[in-house]
Amino acid sequence: MKLYRSLCRIFDRHRTFLPATVARFLPIMSDNLFTPPPSVRGMEVLDRQAFNMTVQVPAIKIPTKAINGLLKPLRSILLKRPNTKKVVDIPDDQQHKFLLCDPDKVVPKENLAEQHEKVLQENGVTAVPQLYDLQMGYDSWTAQEVLTAILPEGDPIKSFSRVGHIAHLNLRDHQLPHKNLIGQVIMDKNQGITSVVNKTNIINNTFRFFSMELIAGEDKTMVTVKENHSTFEFDFAQVYWNPRLSTEHERIANKFRARDVVYDVFAGVGPFAIPSARRRCEVLANDLNPESYKWLVHNTKLNKVQDRVRTFNMDGRQFIQEVVKKDMIDRCQGEDAELQDHVSHVIMNLPAMAVEFLDVFRGLLAGETLQEFRPPMVYCHTFSKADDPTADARQRVEEVLGAALPKDHYIHRVRDVAPNKEMMCVSFHMPMEVLFTQQSQTDPSEPDRKRMKTET
Question: Most exposed among 192, 197, 294, 318, judged by the fewest C-beta atoms under 10 Å?
Answer without folding.
Answer: 192
